[in-house]
Amino acid sequence: MFTHYKNTVQEGDLVELAGPRHKSDIFILIRGETLQTHRGIIKHDDLIGKPWGSQVISHLGKPFILFRPSLNSLILNTKRNTQILYPKDIGFIQVTMGIGPGINIIEAGTGSGGLTQALAFAVGKNGHVYTYEIRPEMHKLAKDNLSLIKLGDRVTFKLKDIRNGFDEKNVDAVFLDLPNPYDYIAQVREALKLGGAFGAILPTVNQVIKLLIELNRNSFSFIEVCEILLRYFKPEATRLRPTDRMVAHTGYLIFAKSIELIDNK
Amino acid sequence: MFTHYKNTVQEGDLVELAGPRHKSDIFILIRGETLQTHRGIIKHDDLIGKPWGSQVISHLGKPFILFRPSLNSLILNTKRNTQILYPKDIGFIQVTMGIGPGINIIEAGTGSGGLTQALAFAVGKNGHVYTYEIRPEMHKLAKDNLSLIKLGDRVTFKLKDIRNGFDEKNVDAVFLDLPNPYDYIAQVREALKLGGAFGAILPTVNQVIKLLIELNRNSFSFIEVCEILLRYFKPEATRLRPTDRMVAHTGYLIFAKSIELIDNK
Amino acid sequence: MFTHYKNTVQEGDLVELAGPRHKSDIFILIRGETLQTHRGIIKHDDLIGKPWGSQVISHLGKPFILFRPSLNSLILNTKRNTQILYPKDIGFIQVTMGIGPGINIIEAGTGSGGLTQALAFAVGKNGHVYTYEIRPEMHKLAKDNLSLIKLGDRVTFKLKDIRNGFDEKNVDAVFLDLPNPYDYIAQVREALKLGGAFGAILPTVNQVIKLLIELNRNSFSFIEVCEILLRYFKPEATRLRPTDRMVAHTGYLIFAKSIELIDNK
Amino acid sequence: MFTHYKNTVQEGDLVELAGPRHKSDIFILIRGETLQTHRGIIKHDDLIGKPWGSQVISHLGKPFILFRPSLNSLILNTKRNTQILYPKDIGFIQVTMGIGPGINIIEAGTGSGGLTQALAFAVGKNGHVYTYEIRPEMHKLAKDNLSLIKLGDRVTFKLKDIRNGFDEKNVDAVFLDLPNPYDYIAQVREALKLGGAFGAILPTVNQVIKLLIELNRNSFSFIEVCEILLRYFKPEATRLRPTDRMVAHTGYLIFAKSIELIDNK
């Protein structure tokens, strides 16, 4: 994915069609099909063979640009029925937890697979993502979302409650994106290798407080709590200024490291 | 790197030794050597053979934890004589520009190699980083910093002015971390494949304004300007609150995409 | 105003009727009239004689609370056809520029009188606000807005271009809320007493840059540029968290002091 | 105060002497005395008779500017042995709670009197501040601080525990700046008039949670929780950018209104 693309657009490619200041469409190119947008109709056949970055014009004369889908667009366009993680948080999670090529990571819950996509992309062919979910419909949806971007083979999808623990041992990292991570810290400790990275995201301070208590109780160390604010500007050279409104809160990020259990603390 | 470590600490490993609330030390394990810290002396020999995540005690009785170095620690500990990029910005740059396994990216200038480390880690064995620098001493320093973490083979270091252009064509992404990126936008356009991602970081609004003018002049599109604020909390369950002070500004992030040159704009 | 109210609601009072989580209505009580709201109809006669802070019920059975109008509500409810200053900025302007009882301040432009209301309230009976405006309809609107809250006698409204200077000399403070304050800095200097406070608010960095140039050219000193971010929380004890979205930008605040003209700078 | 100054500096005046980029000195002018600073010595006699905003030169040739003390400088220079409220918070408190000329407000605890100064200035000659403190040394210090700026007659200082309630009834506003405001909400309700404004500032989320519980239990309504971030810029026209570091947190602000007790909530 992302790197398997040819220089020109091929039938079967997952493409992103973006209009200026408009939400982009992400879809698979199929001969004979058409795309309906608010700014006019576009035939798939007219896109096949074009170089990436080309301009295409709808039947209403409106311009679009043809891109390989970006990770950001994929995440924000993920078909979903739950809250998703934002790119601002995903980027910081990856850098802080050291998620990159070759890493093995457990994620729970899977949700619609937004974060799963980013993790599967980052760990590469030699890493792996184990993702747990208890709701069958989310499990299914996430699987489909990962297949669409051809990263399904880097992910093991498990329809399973984590109350009784994870199946894996000695993984590099565990990320919990569920309302009660504090109920599973002992299980995390079992799965994580010593020195491994734990992460979670939580919307309320009440949840953060509960999680801090459990992390301390289970000898996690190097605990960090933070939040990331992302502010966009109107990118105009003669009237440069921040946008009027912004996202004020997605969640608090909590990180910790699993260390040797020590008596004299 | 990061994934080549054994389960126990080996001679020759790059290790991170971290004390609670203290800056960590990152160094290579060599038999017979000792590490001097403000919290006591530690013999390298005493670390060899220990499991990662173990506790070790200095001759003053102070505890340290033994970690595989994290990317964050590496970046923040990078031996340097310039301003470095912060993890909060690096994470967002990677997610926004789609930097992951298999990607080819140009970076200029190299500086002390802080961002180079993160990029080299992220692109994996099948990707590559081409990094340009005009100051010989920085060129040398960055090379050494990358060798230390065994990622030098994923990077081509160039001691070369980019005024006359880059040697590469059709790369996936170009990131400029220098004071006058606006002077090299035509060169970026030449090197970047259509649909490819451009990024830059700049401390002052005056520089951002100049860059916006040049990006528009060179038909870049989907231009975004933003800034990221990272706020840490004191991670105490009974007294949870943000820290007293924080970094107020590292730089403005500017992103854009190279698209087909179009007459009727 | 604000202090002339009796303990119970009187005919002719300006009242604020607020429903939980709904925008409040501010209006004058007139016998025989009715108020139409989305949550039902309320008769003015039913409010007269009630204590402030009372609950009243609409014909649909929906509850409202009866308040003396707060300054914040007045400003946010100001009948207007322009952008207004936000309470977060007004409060900091007042404290930074020392606006309080007995102060004489010039304001330009008047706009719809949102800031004028706050200034007139703050300077008390012994202070005074001189406000300049060139658009007759705004001049008229602001006058009406100030009459409504019975603070018109503390304000001199001038329908006049400030290009040729202000009529007043030796005032304590001058605040410019117009797009090109940098064109009037010499005029501000003429009107302001030595040691007096200058302030302005501007939406774009380009305007701030121009203003800084002119302030330096006119020997203003102790120049400060800042911005204020206000973040609200959902005030729920069991689920405390910031709101999802917030105002990202109202304007940059610029403050300076007029000092003795000095040759050797 | 602030408005009783003549156009030229008089013996006995409280003056502020400010150097560029240096903390200012605030002191009373006394014939024959000298001021020692890091940038040289200045004789009080050389200041008397000068216009406000004048430049004066120390015996080392360093320039200073002579100002009437600003409220901000006074607050930040307040002789103290506790944490003080910051101007960014004070301004918003005043606007939100409607603190202005003629208002009666209760404050507890007094602390070193930083907020007391701002309140006493804002309420003018016709308003009044009742301030409670249980530590005799703080009570004394605050009294001295208010005398210094000649606002002591607008303040009633009480050395008294508020556990048994406040002596005043029907005040316009109550502000609690102490670690456990949640222990005194019933007392606040007794003292505040219906429709009156309550405010508090608290450093930790744990305290905010407790306060929210008590406000709800005591039928306070229109409860708001927020925080204010103030970011300064380096005010240079050719290199405009935020400062490197900023205050990340002073406290959470909590506001509420006392309304009629209602059964069916």
Pair of chains with the largest interface and how many residues each contributes: A-B, 78 and 78 residues
Tell me the series of helices and strands of chain A, N- to C-terminal: EEEEEEHHEHEHEEHEHEEEE
CATH superfamily grouping of the largest domain in chain A: Vaccinia Virus protein VP39
**What strand order characterises the main sheet of chain A?**
9-8-7-10-11-15-12-13
Largest sheet of chain A: 8 strands, mixed
- Distance from first to last alpha carbon of chain A: 47 Å
Care to count the β-strands of chain A? 15
- Looking at how many chains there are and whether they match, the oligomeric state comes to homotetramer
Helix and strand content put the structural class of chain A at alpha/beta
Mean pLDDT score of chain A, rounded? Answer: 92
Low confidence ranges of chain A: none
Percent helix range of chain A: 10-25%
Residue share in β-strands of chain A: 25-35%
Describe this structure in words.
4 copies of one chain form a homotetramer. With 265 residues, chain A is α/β, with parallel strands linked by helices. In chain A, 23% of the residues lie in helices and 32% in strands. In chain A, the strands form 3 sheets. In chain A, strands 9-8-7-10-11-15-12-13 form an 8-stranded mixed sheet, with helices on both faces. In chain A, strands 2-1-6-5 form a 4-stranded antiparallel sheet, covered by helices on one side. In chain A, helix 1 (71-77) runs antiparallel to helix 3 (114-123). Chain A is globular and about 70 Å long. The termini of chain A are far apart. The relative contact order of chain A is 0.11. The model of chain A has no long low-confidence stretch (mean pLDDT 92). Chains C and D meet through strand 6, helix 2, helix 3, strand 11 and helix 6 of C and strand 6, helix 2, helix 3, strand 11 and helix 6 of D. Strand 12 of chain A pairs antiparallel with strand 12 (220-234) of chain B, so a sheet runs across the interface.
